[in-house]
Amino acid sequence: MSEHSVPSPTGVVDTRYWHRVGDGRVQCDVCPRACRMHDGQRGLCFVRGTEDGRVKLYSYGRSSGFCIDPIEKKPLNHFLPGSAVLSFGTAGCNLACKFCQNWDMSKSREMDTLADRASPAELAAAAERLGCASIAYTYNDPTVFMEYAIDVAAAARERGVRSVAVTAGYICPEPRAEFFRHMDAANIDLKGFTEDFYRKVCGAELGAVLDTLRYVRHETRAWLEVTTLLIPGLNDSNRELEELCAWFAANLGPDVPLHFTAFHPDWKLRDLPPTPLATLVRARRIARRHGLRYVYTGNVHDPDGGVTWCYGCGEAVVRRDGYAIDQWQLTADGACGSCGTACAGVFGDRPGGWGPRRARVTLGVDDGVELS
């Protein structure tokens, strides 16, 4: 392990980002929530808590399950398209989104749900053995299990396997620098564009997320893509979309892909309707009008919303049907095959061949792989 002590058999490990406060409590400094805890208490994420006067992580080496996904499902359309990614998460989250799609894991208070175990070395070896180009830290937010994710990423890098963070970006500057130094790509959720939405619907602050987006874009080598889930009546107005896209263009630039995805009723927002396709098309039109070159729609069947267009000549360089690539017109160096304009991203000589499949994996000497 890199900078962290060896975990106990129950998956408990000491952490670095905390300090003692004057009233006998210890403050966790991983995210802006700044949970202050007496011994025996857990933070809002539930997987970080205080024991013996120190903040510990209780989910190191433990997972709710391992799956092989298409990289496009993260979603990442410009990072090794078509490749397979070994995906896993733990339990807990440092946000409180009322629309959470993975609430059974992110809101879990039952550590027994973390039935699968794997060391960083075992995960890295399995990804290489299974032909996965990368490992994704996903399903719940990896910032809450950052010690485990960082150690997996370090082991994976030694084998030529890359690392992908799927995160809400709600993290403080010092741990943020350490965490993203180990990531090769990230998809960060920009859940809305008003402080009111973040506070009332997500239990967080917008400003910290914007800081993370700027940091990853300008201060790291990680490839960045951004996702905004559009919820009818809550964050889908023309005014909010115009402001979001204007900020995006000015702060992240035209080459960062933006994914608008459809909401489906879940968790504590079951009384709202699903997002209409027309809303996603409208959002995509607004983003393109602000000069964003790569704007996608997701969680709906929208062939046009999955196309990567060359901004030089207007030709389709990658066509997708869902998570499957059915047309590839990029050269070996990632340029348009028609006009030679470079397409922003991280590409191989050709697309990967994993396709839209999803496979449940049981890690061991002979990995069990069950397609779904």
Keywords:
372 residues, alpha/beta, TIM Barrel, 2 domains, ten-stranded mixed sheet, three-stranded antiparallel sheet, 21 strands, 23% helix, 23% strand
Summarize the structure.
The chain folds into 2 domains: 13-57, no CATH class; 65-362, TIM Barrel, CATH 3.20.20.70. Helix content is 23%, strand content 23%.
Provide a count of the helices: 8
Structural class: alpha/beta
Helix content: 10-25%
Q: How many E-type strands?
A: 21
Distance between the termini: 34 Å
Report on this structure:
By secondary structure, the chain is α/β, with parallel strands linked by helices. 23% of the residues lie in helices and 23% in strands. The protein is globular and about 65 Å long. The protein has 2 domains: 45 residues, no CATH class; 298 residues, Alpha-Beta Barrel (TIM Barrel).
